[in-house]
Amino acid sequence: MTIPRTLTTLAALSLALTLLFAPQCLPAPEDGDEQPIYLEADGAEFIEAESLSIYTGNVFIRQGSMEFRGDRVTVHHDPEHRPKLITATGTPVTYRQQVEGEEKAVEAKALRMEYDKAQDEITLIDQAVLFQGEDTFRSDRIVYDRTQARVKAGTIAKGKERVKITISPARR
What we know:
The protein has 172 residues and is mainly β. The chain has one helix spanning 5-20; strands spanning 37-40, 43-47, 52-63, 66-77, 83-97, 106-116, 121-132, 135-145, 150-153, 164-166. Strands 1, 2, 3, 4, 5, 6, 7, 8, 9 and 10 form a ten-stranded antiparallel sheet that branches.
């Protein structure tokens, strides 16, 4: 039995989004790749000739405690239909995931998020903000190199704005 390309494309998107939005910390115990992925959008388009899939209008994705929302998600696939570049845009694109042992979820938002699988980098572009607990990290561009666990922001990440960090005092 052969699996239709549309299902292969959806499976590839699911895997890509799991990789794209995996937090830097341990996820909550109910999270994991074995959890079902729920995807909702006003529209979906699959362009086989261009190895492209596009999801538009109130895109919502959930897997375990991970939630992602955006206006448009575009996935460029390699010849084996695996995602190679994922771009999400929104006003803003948002990401949220509960982290084990933390009271508050990790959250991020930007007008654009990109995941380059070959570089294993997540880039938050334009009005980028990362929230972890009571701490906040802001810049016009934040790049996270997952392979080297390295974060760059501002001019060092080819941004134009200064980096603004707010660190809250530890609660006793």
